[in-house]
Amino acid sequence: MDPIRNRIFITDLIKTDFPQSVYEEVQYLISLVYLDYDFTWLSRVFKDVVNLYGGNFPGYRQCNTPYHDLKHVTDALLVFASLVHGAFASGLSFREKHITLALISIMLHETGYLQREDDVTGTGAKYTLVRAERSLEFLEFYFAANGYDDGDLKLCREFIICTDMNEDISEVSFDSPETETIAKMVATACIIGQISDRNYLEKLLFLFQELNEAQVFGFETELDLLENTMEFYRRARSRLENELGGVQSFLAHHFRKRWEIGYDMYADAIESNLAYLGHLLENHRNDYREKLNRGGLLKRLAILEEIKKK
């Protein structure tokens, strides 16, 4: 066993592979902050999102992007709820309605990858470069179909826009400093949720497949993407610390209060992933796939590759 990967992960505390388990933890964290919180609206959206990604939502196909899947969404959802709880533990609180809208925004922020039922060419990965626009279109459709308030729609749009790594948050016109802080927490959750995933390195190989289908140039091989991930992380870390105001610091308060753990487990997971990636790039450039064996994902990737050959 490689000692660099032998660490405790969030998965040792919460069954993150199961959406319902994640949602139950989210409910628990939010209930610690808002004692009389009404989960009716949030639970309805969560059910719709699970059905949407599972192919049980009218007019839409099942999610077929293995990187940008439902777990990608629930990972971000859990990080955000942890940030909210951590902020509260440090003495900072927000309007309940704003937090609800932020949670909904996270659940809907990657819907741009999903295909309508009559769209049978390729996978949703082909929409990579227009994901944000399509997610906003789905948000508007979903709010209109359910009779939700236009004012709430506006704020959700702003939250989703901020999940774009290339978006300059300083150019977004927020109604208040509070909603700006929450937007930064949303964006932070989306970054940390994916990089801290215990199977992050394995899932990068699926991301390569998505980028290849979308004809995103610059990654001729999987190794190109793995090497670029180091630069992506440097950009992400700079964004977290600067544009997003360092709100990830709330996570340390969360782990101390919720689990009596004296450090930020997400930061530790990211450190572990990046350290192991460095190990692969330095010592296993020719056999890196053999060293990526978590979650049985490489077997799944092999099946997908065989299907594409036919």
Q: Can you characterise this structure?
A:
With 310 residues, the protein is mostly helical. The chain has a single domain (13-309), classed as Catalytic domain of cyclic nucleotide phosphodiesterase 4b2b (Orthogonal Bundle). The chain has helices at 19-33, 40-53, 70-89, 96-108, 131-145, 150-161, 177-195, 200-213, 222-241, 250-259, 265-283, 297-309. α9 packs antiparallel against α11. The two termini are 36 Å apart.
Question: How many distinct folded domains?
Answer: 1
- Intertermini distance: 36 Å
Q: What is the N-to-C succession of helices and strands?
A: HHHHHHHHHHHH
Total strand segments? 0
The average pLDDT is 94
Based on helices, strands and strand pairing, what is the structural class?
Answer: mainly alpha
* Overall 3D shape: globular
Sum this structure up briefly.
The protein is mainly alpha-helical. It has 12 helices and no strands.
Labels describing this entry:
310 residues, mainly alpha, Catalytic domain of cyclic nucleotide phosphodiesterase 4b2b, disordered N terminus
How does the SSE layout of this entry go?
Layout: H1 19-33, H2 40-53, H3 70-89, H4 96-108, H5 131-145, H6 150-161, H7 177-195, H8 200-213, H9 222-241, H10 250-259, H11 265-283, H12 297-309
